Amino acid sequence: MRKLVIFLALALCLGLATTATLADEPQYGGRVVVRMASDPATLDPFRVSVDVFAWDLSYAMNGYLFIVGPDGEFIPDVAESWETPDDQTYVFHLREGVTFHDGVELTADDVIFTFEKNLDPDFGSQWHTGIRDHIESVEKIDDYTVQVNLVETFAPLKYALLFPIVPQHAWEEKGADDFPYNPVGAGPFKFKEWSPDERIVFEAYDDFWGGRPYLDEIEFRNMDYDTALMAFLDEDIDVLEVATEDLEFVKDHDALDIFETPGTSWSYLGINQTEGPLSDVRVRQAISYAINRQEIIETHFHGTVVPSTGPIVPASWAHNPDVRSYPYNPGAAVRLLREAGYDDGVTIEIKCSTGAVSIMEIIQDQLSMVGIEVDLQPMEWGLLTEDVLADNFELHYRTWTRQTDPERGINRQFMTDTNTNIAGYSNPRVDELAEKAVRTLDIDERRDYYFEIQEILAEDLPVIFLWHGIHRIAYNNRVQNYAFDPFYAHRTYRHMWIEE
Q1: Both 167 and 245 in a single domain?
Q2: Is residue 427 part of a domain?
Q3: Rounded CA gap, 171 and 173, in Å?
Q4: Which of 227, 249, 339, 434 is at 20 to 30 A from 428, Cα to Cα?
């Protein structure tokens, strides 16, 4: 019935569609309406939520030292340039004349204030973890120059510095309770209104350092998915993350387009390999051979993910495309199980969130075909996380998102004794290579280190690599210069414009 209603709505939309006037040059004016699934918990720049809409809001509203471009390059923002006099020193040169939305100039004092808050362990900034072990001090050289001194060389530092610059005067005037709900930033759009559970609206900042953005407003509208889909087909909203089963409806609509880009997420089966059958690499390899990834990709994900052979996504400069892979081969799986002494099969428990049950049921059926019986344990996300952190699992299904520098996918998960190594994996050679990879700024050397690590992981299989995500976002084609940053999964609205 739901599909029939959508089909009728689609037919109506197509019947009423009109031809837009083509424009040779970007036009000023208009608004873009973006569906968001729920309100962010806060607009506090020190505590930006991990959900995609909060990142959208932050990048539209706030100024950063630099941002990440679509190809992973660092693009100057409120810092017009930077230099590294040595491997443990970064000097940032701020643009003169950059103002916050209340008209006050952004200076080195605001940058220092932001760093100090993020480095304060008692303040509770979400950015603290990424920088606490790496930054020794931050110095004001003059009103437009800031120097960051490191404890030791740390190649991924700039990724750790991708946080908003907060106006010291406004934070201190408004206080920590009021600022997050009446924020002041230095981005291309300024906060206008927040109607809880309805919408958040931003308007163009006329005095933005890079020039007034083309759009007059951006509205983030809080809607349930089915209502949003109907509104999108009816061209009442402009941007929507469309469920895979509804992609064809969108593709058939002349006024709507799909934006596709490689994602930065990777999904896997985490393994507790400290004891039991999974401590044997042959059992782990058997599981990997027994999973028909392509079938799952086609029938469940409808092509919105691609097979994975390791933790570094294909969009990354450090991705090694030539490591050992485990294509679907049930015969190889059975042979490996027998070599490991499990002629009569084996039973293994898989824990997953309740939202992943349908995927895990497919894997459960596939593994049963080779003699691996799966005891599937769906859990609420919070309880699953508690069990994973307590090593109370055999296998668990998980996804890591927003992989930027390969340090996030390798050093944090596969080095011995890191707090996010939840597989019990330890390989001295991986530790050695991973440490070298973050202590040199030479990207070619770093690539060589990470290539070798991926080769080792493909043999050891500390986790079962499943798939990488692809971002597919639907938008109305009156929205011109639509852009989406795959590394941080947010839209970049500064250069968008509406063709009327």
Answers
A1: no
A2: yes
A3: 6
A4: 339
148 lies in the same domain as 193: no
CATH code of the domain containing 227: 3.40.190.10
User: Is 479 within the bounds of a domain?
Assistant: no
Q: Which has the closest alpha carbon to 31: 244, 242, 214?
A: 214
Is residue 22 located within the same domain as residue 85?
Answer: no
> Domain range for residue 77?
63-176
Residue 436, domain member (yes or no): yes
Which whole-number Å values give the CA distances from 446 to 406, 450, 451, 453, in the listed order? 9, 6, 9, 11
Per-residue pLDDT of the chain (500 residues; tens, 9 = 90+): 333 333 333 333 333 332 333 446 899 999 999 999 888 888 999 988 666 678 889 989 999 999 887 667 889 999 999 999 999 999 999 999 999 999 999 999 999 999 999 999 999 898 998 899 999 999 999 999 999 999 999 999 998 999 999 999 999 999 999 999 999 999 999 999 999 999 999 999 999 999 999 999 999 999 999 999 999 999 999 999 888 778 888 888 889 988 877 777 889 999 998 889 999 999 999 999 999 999 999 888 877 889 999 999 888 889 999 999 999 999 999 999 999 999 999 999 999 999 899 999 999 999 999 999 999 999 998 899 889 888 899 999 998 876 678 888 898 889 998 877 877 889 999 999 999 999 999 999 999 999 999 999 999 999 999 999 887 789 999 999 987 766 655 667 889 999 97
Tell me, yes or no, whether 102 and 135 share the same domain.
Answer: yes
Residue type, 297: I
Number of domains into which the chain is organized = 3
7: left (phi over 0), alpha (psi -120 to 50) or beta: alpha
